[in-house]
Write a structure and sequence with these properties.
The complex is a heterotrimer. By secondary structure, chain A is an all-alpha fold. Chain A has helices spanning 4-25, 29-53, 63-93, 103-110. Chain A is elongated, with a radius of gyration of 19 Å. The chains are: A mainly alpha, B mainly alpha, C mainly alpha. Chains in contact: A-B, B-C.
């Protein structure tokens, strides 16, 4: 018997996998940040599935995982903002990639 | 049959997620991510978590989307973006990710019986406090320490962003958020919408005590109104050396901490409230938090200072 | 009561029809401006009909008012977004008249 929670649980597993794939394979940092956020969203939905299944004491869903996810979404936003600020600062100082660039390329990047 | 809308929604979410990762242009990827965020908020409604749905739509789709779009506009594309890993790497990573997905799916399909739940504990807290929204009770009473620490994380993230300010600009204002092409329509929206939006933000905070909504959702709506005004070029971002700004940033955590320590004297310990005054204390803490969240989110999107202080 | 339900079904059905038509237009129309036209039609008429259909179902006056406010806000946001996209298209065309 497949319920609503299970369907969204499978969706969450897919999101985690897709996000992880992008995080590992994308060469540019900004795309990695986006993929990481997808991964995070998938994890949050897994919490949501646990919340929906844990509905008890007159609640449709367990409020504790829900509160944790709300906290998590805000923290994910804060870390994304920090990552974006770091990327912009990296660009200003000349290094454009996580990988080390050879010195002659670095000169081009800084110009 | 009743699962049909859910299956369609899940299919849409996964398609948008694949598109976000696979698409070549990074701005398309950001738009794909916003679409995923908005669709996910529908999924949260289906999971009976309306509070989370509001947060996801406001922060996951809206604020993060704006942040990433702005990053796209300011980051110069590099030739490195066309360098792709070896095909064998794709296949290997794809396989490993599929294994992880299969493992998570197995956990989902074979749930623990009976389902783990903390709902009765949260419910036990509700009766004493006189609040009707269980999620707010968990956030501000049952697990208040988590919420307090999360506010501290927000302040730390903002300090982290501000420390990236170049030396000569320290104390100045962040880069302007205005669009390259000024638009009459956007300006009109930024003049008409904020009064309504501020009322909605305050309503979400106030209403969050008993119904879906709360400090995060209301705070984000307030931040959105501020960002809209800055994007329409009606106001510039404030200089980060301003004392008022810095006070507003720490107001929420400080009020929360004071209420927490007061618990030693007026109740049973740190972050516990006397039943008679629980609701007013929580509402005051929530109001201060919402204000701080609005300011912090706005300044996080605006980024580090990019102009010398005047 | 049944009359009210029938009105809701008819109005929401009409709204869904406009959304469907708008989506088909969005996918099939050749250029940005006509796609935008299809999209705003779906927003205006489709969403308008759905709100109209849901109004008689709202339990009290306040809920009904909230629905109307949501409709107004969506109108405002959609109109501005439409303007901005159209403006961007105009900018691109001036820059590159061949496109």
């Amino acid at each position: 018997m497949i319920g609503t929670a299970t369907v969204y649980g499978l969706c969450a597993s897919g999101l985690v996998a897709i996000g992880l794939y992008g995080l590992v394979l994308h060469p540019t940092p900004l795309r990695k940040v986006i993929a990481f956020n997808l991964l995070g969203s998938g994890t949050f939905v897994l919490f949501g599935v646990a919340a929906r299944r844990g509905g008890a004491a007159g609640f449709l869903a367990d409020p504790v995982p829900q509160a944790m996810v709300i906290t998590g979404i805000v923290v994910a936003f804060a870390s994304t903002a920090l990552a974006v600020a770091l990327l912009l600062r990296l660009q200003e100082t000349g290094a454009s990639s996580i990988e080390t660039t050879p010195p002659e390329q670095q000169d081009n990047g800084a110009s | 049959m009743t699962l049909l809308p859910d299956l369609a929604l899940v299919l849409l979410i996964l398609t948008a997620a694949v598109w976000t990762v696979a698409v070549r242009d990074r701005r398309d990827a950001v738009i794909g991510f916003i679409v995923v965020g908005l669709l996910l908020s529908l999924a949260w409604v289906r999971l009976n978590a309306v509070d989370v749905a509001l947060t996801e739509a406001a922060i996951g789709g809206g604020a993060t989307g704006l942040l990433l779009l702005r990053a796209c506009a300011r980051l110069v594309p590099r030739p490195a973006e066309s360098v792709l890993p070896h095909p064998a790497m794709w296949i290997l990573t794809g396989l490993l990710c599929s294994v992880i997905a299969a493992g998570l799916a197995a956990i989902v399909v074979m749930p623990v019986e009976p389902p783990a739940t903390l709902a009765p504990e949260a419910a036990a807290n509700m009766g004493e406090l006189g609040l009707g929204n269980p999620v707010t009770v968990v956030l501000l009473a049952y697990r208040a320490l988590d919420t307090l620490l999360e506010k501290v994380v927000l302040v730390l993230a903002l300090i982290g962003v501000w420390t990236l300010t170049p030396e000569q600009f320290w104390g100045g204002a962040p880069a302007s958020l205005r669009a390259q092409q000024s638009s009459g329509a956007l300006r009109l929206l930024a003049q008409v919408l904020p009064p309504v939006g501020v009322v909605i933000g305050v309503y979400l905070v106030w209403n969050g005590a008993d119904h879906p909504g709360g400090t995060f959702q209301g705070g984000t709506v307030l931040a959105a109104m501020w960002l809209l005004v800055m994007m329409a070029d009606l106001r510039e971002p404030p200089e980060i050396r301003l004392h008022t700004l810095r006070l507003l940033v720490i107001l929420g955590p400080v009020v929360f901490l004071v209420a927490g320590f007061a618990g030693f004297w007026i109740a049973n310990g740190f972050l516990s409230y006397p039943p008679a005054f629980a609701k007013p204390i929580i509402v005051i803490v929530e109001a201060a938090l919402a204000l701080s969240i609005a300011v912090i989110l706005g300044m996080l999107v605006a980024g580090p200072a990019a102009r010398a202080p005047r | 009561m049944i009359l009210v339900d029938m009105f809701t079904m008819a109005a929401v059905g009409a709204g869904m029809f406009f959304f469907l038509a708008g989506t088909v237009g969005l996918l099939r129309f050749p250029d940005t401006l006509s796609r935008l036209h299809a999209l705003t039609k779906a927003d205006n008429l489709g969403f308008g009909f759905i709100v109209l259909g849901l109004l008689p179902q709202s339990p009290d006056v306040l809920s009904g008012l909230k629905l109307v406010v949501v409709w107004l806000l969506v109108q405002l946001a959609a109109a501005t977004a439409g303007q901005l996209i159209a403006q961007f298209v105009g900018l691109e065309r001036r820059r590159d008249p061949a496109a």
